[in-house]
Prior knowledge:
- By secondary structure, the protein is mainly alpha-helical.
- It has helices at 2-46, 75-79, 92-123, 131-151, 180-211, and strands at 54-56, 62-64, 85-86, 157-164, 167-174.
- The protein has five helices and five strands, in the order αββαβααββα.
- Strands 2-1-3 form a three-stranded antiparallel sheet, with no helix packed on it. The protein has a two-stranded antiparallel sheet with strand order 4-5.
- The longest helix has 45 residues, at 2-46.
Amino acid sequence: MSNNKNYSLMKTERKIILSSHFLKFIMAILFATGISLVVIYFHSLNSPEKYTSLIITKNNSLIFDSSIKEIPKNYDEWKNTKQFIHFNLLENFTKVRFLLSKFTNVVGYFFIIFLFHKFLKNTLTLQFFFESNIKILNKILYILLGLFLLRLLPFNLYTMVFFKNGLPHYVSKSYMNLNFLFYYPLYIIFIYLIKIIFKRGQELKTENDLTI
Length: 212
């Protein structure tokens, strides 16, 4: 019986360690993504020709579309295309605002994963109702709430600038993606329920310790 219990604990520990490595991998990807956003902005200022294929999709993602070989030279030419939001055509304030919103999201996700990693490290001792885990869940809730509120800001309004006879012609386009109104509250409620369960577990553990 004891051997089975030890084997079960070792198996659980291995799963936790593997999960920890996976979270580190995700953090590395998020870190690289954040650096990439900074590089894209500054490099695009000096070498815009390198970003001809860079567009913003309808779900507000930044992607390279290899089928795009050149950007429209004027508004009339753009109007006769699929009317993509071309990164190179964005007015500078819009470009900064868009990249800053993406960078903020990446930083937020990075810290959420970092906190989950700390959470896993605590579970290695099998102290699932340890007080620091409740504090970690609180921090995750604050970050999720902050990201949710940021998504409510009008970051999805994109202004492109075309030039005609040397004069700027501004065109604004907006992509609405309301999926976050569903999954952010879902994440927040889920983490909140876990926090309530852990808090109650901590209270029961404290009561049990006092009884003993």
